[in-house]
């Protein structure tokens, strides 16, 4: 969670310094979801991500330097600088890619789960998506087929309260997005997305179900992005005091840290060291990316067509 947080804050700083071209959609405040889910997955298990996807990528095992280089369009990035922020992928870790199209990753993950079942493997697929994507046709079609075919997939909705600037209450017909699971004959559960233990436990049950051949689960994680929808977002649509309340009292990293210290598992000094190490790693990733070469324009057609 600390790696994700400081990677995102470093990306924001690079954007503000005009060193990172284009906008990025940052995951700060939602780290418990990616960490609670991906900590239980193997490299061979699949995930699909969203336009706010750096957190999922890092939680699935990405190296910060290659991830930052990708955001900066450098040839040393995961996709040679071609994907940028919203399409980053790493097939070696089962990350089938982020997707700028809302709901675009949901059927891809469903297809990966179908492949796993047809190939008779024990692989599972996870689709991360936001509250806005739950109103897309891809969501409903994918949940229906996944349930009919009992596919090994877990649908993880990160409900951060807003689809860009539109509150969920103004766009979605149900109080809990997980309520929609009943229409597709699968379990649906809503958890505190800022509590990494709650996310972990809910996903643990869903994972057992998927591996047992019992089909999919819909998990809704209620969370909150403490930064704007994108790096240039003026955020005129939400109350600054509410943002501060979430940042000051519901921060997933601080809640986790407090619980670990109170349980006697770690000292504050030990966890401060974890945080400091994450800062150092994010700083090093930025230096690596800044000093990496830009792609050669003559290579623009490479990897576009496949020759049989």
TrEMBL record:
Query: Which GO annotations describe the biological process of this protein?
Result: pyruvate decarboxylation to acetyl-CoA
Q: Which residues form the Dehydrogenase E1 component domain?
A: 2-297
Record keywords, A-Z: Oxidoreductase, Thiamine pyrophosphate
Q: Which Pfam families match?
A: E1_dh (PF00676)
Keyword Nucleotide-binding recorded: no
Q: Which GO terms describe its molecular function?
A: pyruvate dehydrogenase (acetyl-transferring) activity
Q: Which domain of life is it from?
A: Bacteria
Q: Does the keyword Chaperone apply?
A: no
Q: Which cofactor does it need?
A: thiamine diphosphate
Q: What is this protein called?
A: Acetoin:2,6-dichlorophenolindophenol oxidoreductase subunit alpha
């Amino acid at each position: 969670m600390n790696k994700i947080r400081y990677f995102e804050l470093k990306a924001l700083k690079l954007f503000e310094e005009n060193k990172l071209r284009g906008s990025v959609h940052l995951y700060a405040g939602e780290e418990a979801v990616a960490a609670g889910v991906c900590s239980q997955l193997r490299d061979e298990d699949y995930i699909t991500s969203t336009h706010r996807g750096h957190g999922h990528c890092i939680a699935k095992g990405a190296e910060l330097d290659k991830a930052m280089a990708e955001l900066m369009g450098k040839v040393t990035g995961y996709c040679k600088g071609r994907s940028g922020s919203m399409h980053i992928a790493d097939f070696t870790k089962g990350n089938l890619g982020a997707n700028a199209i809302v709901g675009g990753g949901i059927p891809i993950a469903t297809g990966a789960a179908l492949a796993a079942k047809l190939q008779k493997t024990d692989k599972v697929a996870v689709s991360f998506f936001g509250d806005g994507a739950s109103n897309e046709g891809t969501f409903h079609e994918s949940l229906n087929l996944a349930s009919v075919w009992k596919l090994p997939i877990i649908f993880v909705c990160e409900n951060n309260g807003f689809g860009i600037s539109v509150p969920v209450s103004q766009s979605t017909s149900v109080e809990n997005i997980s309520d929609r699971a009943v229409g597709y004959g699968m379990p649906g559960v809503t958890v505190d997305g800022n509590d990494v233990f709650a996310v972990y436990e809910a996903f643990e049950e869903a994972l057992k179900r998927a591996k047992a051949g019992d089909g999919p689960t819909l998990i809704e994680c209620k969370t909150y992005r403490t930064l704007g929808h994108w790096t240039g977002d003026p955020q005129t649509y939400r109350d600054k005091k509410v943002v501060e309340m979430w940042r000051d009292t519901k921060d997933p990293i601080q809640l986790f840290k407090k619980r670990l210290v109170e349980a006697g598992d770690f000292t504050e000094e030990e966890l401060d060291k974890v945080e400091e190490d994450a800062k150092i790693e994010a700083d090093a990733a930025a230096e690596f990316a800044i000093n990496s070469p830009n792609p050669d324009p003559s290579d623009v057609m490479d990897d576009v067509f496949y020759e049989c």
